[in-house]
């Protein structure tokens, strides 16, 4: 297992608390395919997106390499039509195809993005869609103070939206040593690097810049 899995093991509970308040799934929900049989979430973390998609798809599988993140997912977000598996994205293997393959803030952890994208395309039904959201930044690894300033900036709006107690818990997570250590190891792509890398891998894909995040949508258009 790479270091990402171990790093997420350390922060699983607090990550889940913050993400359950802050994660926005609307980009995925507004780009779902017509056929809603099976969906796959790569780097599913604590299962927030799997849970959301399970209300729309017959069956949803989440894969991750962090035991603790998977443990939270299985404990909090198990439904009859959800499944959580320990699997590395670089070793994607399934005996069936999917209608929807998604991933949120995980691709910057992957060592060989072209290999993973190639496997995702092989696993997609005709008419199926791939939707990815990942961090975009003109600075490859922003320094810690950028995240601390961001956490301070978000604190007051979070107080109004979630209450002081929850906002304080989110702030403590965002400025905690293990989380900042994790972020110090992250490497993000610039906007241009997204176009250069993903454009040829997913011909005809669309990009949408959403602040700190880049969204990518690709449809496996049936030939003819
Ligand atoms: C920032 S978290 C995002 C979790 C979830 N997608 C969300 O949006 O809340 C990144 C996740 O990717 C997982 N991850 C990192 N490298 C991975 C890999 N090679 N294969 C599968 N999962 C991976 C981590 O364990 C972690 O749970």
Automatic annotation (TrEMBL):
Q: CDD domains annotated for this entry?
A: AdoMet_MTases (cd02440)
For whether the record's keyword set contains Methyltransferase, the answer is yes
Q: Which Pfam families does the entry link to?
A: Methyltransf_11
E.C. numbers: 2.1.-.-
- One of the GO BP terms on file: methylation
Entry superkingdom: Bacteria
Cited SUPFAM superfamilies:
S-adenosyl-L-methionine-dependent methyltransferases (SSF53335)
Record-annotated Methyltransferase type domain positions: 40-132
Going by the UniProt record, its keywords in alphabetical order are: Methyltransferase, S-adenosyl-L-methionine, Transferase
* InterPro entries from the UniProt entry: Methyltransf_11 (IPR013216), SAM-dependent_MTases_sf (IPR029063)
Q: Which GO terms describe its molecular function?
A: S-adenosylmethionine-dependent methyltransferase activity
Q: What is this protein called?
A: SAM-dependent methyltransferase
Organism name:
Bacillus glycinifermentans
Its ancestry begins with: Bacteria, Bacillati, Bacillota, Bacilli, Bacillales
């Amino acid at each position: 297992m790479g270091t990402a899995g171990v790093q997420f093991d350390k922060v699983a509970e607090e990550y889940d608390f913050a993400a359950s308040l802050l994660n926005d799934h609307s980009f995925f929900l507004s780009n779902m395919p017509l056929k809603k049989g099976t969906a796959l979430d790569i780097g599913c973390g604590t299962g927030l997106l799997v849970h959301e998609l399970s209300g729309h798809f017959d069956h949803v599988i989440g894969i991750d390499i962090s035991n603790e993140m998977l443990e939270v997912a299985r404990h909090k977000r198990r439904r009859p039509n959800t499944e959580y598996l320990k699997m590395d994205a670089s070793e994607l293997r399934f005996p069936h195809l999917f209608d929807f393959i998604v991933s949120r803030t995980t691709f910057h952890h992957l060592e060989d993005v072209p290999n993973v994208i190639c496997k995702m395309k092989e696993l997609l039904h005709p008419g199926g869609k791939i939707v990815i959201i990942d961090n975009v930044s003109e600075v490859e690894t922003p320094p810690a103070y950028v995240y601390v300033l961001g956490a301070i900036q978000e604190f007051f709006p979070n107080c109004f939206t979630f209450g002081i107690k929850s906002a304080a818990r989110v702030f403590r997570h965002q400025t905690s040593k293990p989380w900042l250590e994790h972020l110090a190891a992250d490497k993000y792509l610039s906007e241009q690097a997204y176009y250069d890398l993903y454009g040829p891998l997913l011909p005809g894909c669309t990009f949408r810049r959403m602040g700190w995040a880049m969204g990518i949508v690709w449809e496996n258009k049936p030939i003819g």
